[in-house]
Structures
1.
Amino acid sequence: MSWTTFSAGIVSIVLGFGCASAPVETPLDDSADGPDTLDENVPLSEAAQVEADRAVLAQLQQTGADLTKPTHIIHYLYFASQDAAVAARAHVPAPLVATVDDAEGEWELAVAHDDVPSLANIAKVRQQLMAIAAAHRGAYDGWEAAVTP
């Protein structure tokens, strides 16, 4: 498992289909399904997701974050096409704010919100976003948070 602490006071973990790393390349599938699908890789189990979340929260705390205060959190989803990313964005519930960006051949959906960074809060949003990603043939790829002292 790896995480990155950015100079701007952000701690990030990027999960890649069964392992954690930063950054993650999500290859496109060239099979008969066409260019609108990501490779069929198995996402991390819920237990592994929770363990990754714990690691990020520990890193946040080590860098001076007060885990009882709301902070800015961004989750990342990836899609093979812009249409899929835009369709997924339409299903992101308020108060989450989602933006679509071209990420070197893939389409990134960044979903931001301010919340207390707890296991329960992260898991709730992650599970919603994983369902949205799966429904649009994409992949959930982790989250990052600002360090709020």
Note: DSSP finds three helices and seven strands in the chain.
2.
Amino acid sequence: MKRTFGVAILLLLAMVMGGVGAPYLPALKSLLDRQLAGRPTPPADDLDAQLRLRRAAERSVQAEQKVGLLQKTLDAEKTRVVATDVDRELNQETIARLAKELAAAREDLGKQQVALATAKATRRTVEASPSKPPPTASPLHGVKTWPDGLRCEGDMRNGHMNGSVTCRDAGNARFDGQWINDKPNGEGTLIVPGRVAYSGTWRDGCLWAGRDWITVATSKQACGRP
């Protein structure tokens, strides 16, 4: 309700401002209609693209009208009958001035047409763009255990270990590294007491150690071939 009231105020201001707010009036009216009808409001990017396209179209039409008016005035001046040398001299000066103004108006028309084409392309791009995905939720800190005694603590998303995780098993071996969906994936290190440390890039809980698979939270059979 507050948002609808705010849009109504903007609409009222645009009406009061007259010529200044007139270009925004149709877009603001459409926005208010959507609010009152319970329909979703277009994204800010889409609304901005609509306004830019509307302004570009208006400027292009104005530039085209100016070119047409100058062309008619120039043609009339060229066909005007002059009686004296003074009138003829003034007539030539007027024709030269109008020709110069016409050339400048045509140049401006070209620029406005380019701006209109750009605004149309931008609007099409905005319309075709998918909605922005919602921001990814921050990971929660959690603890998870496995039947074989493995206990992991670290980042959790959607109930699974995802992110930076530290684990210990029943034999006090320690793993530190990156996890995806309850398995080591990415860089990680497994330290086994009294033995060597295994470091590298893990894939679904598997790390090839040159002769055999080293596993965490999975079985060697699941690792397949190296």
Note: The radius of gyration is 36 Å.
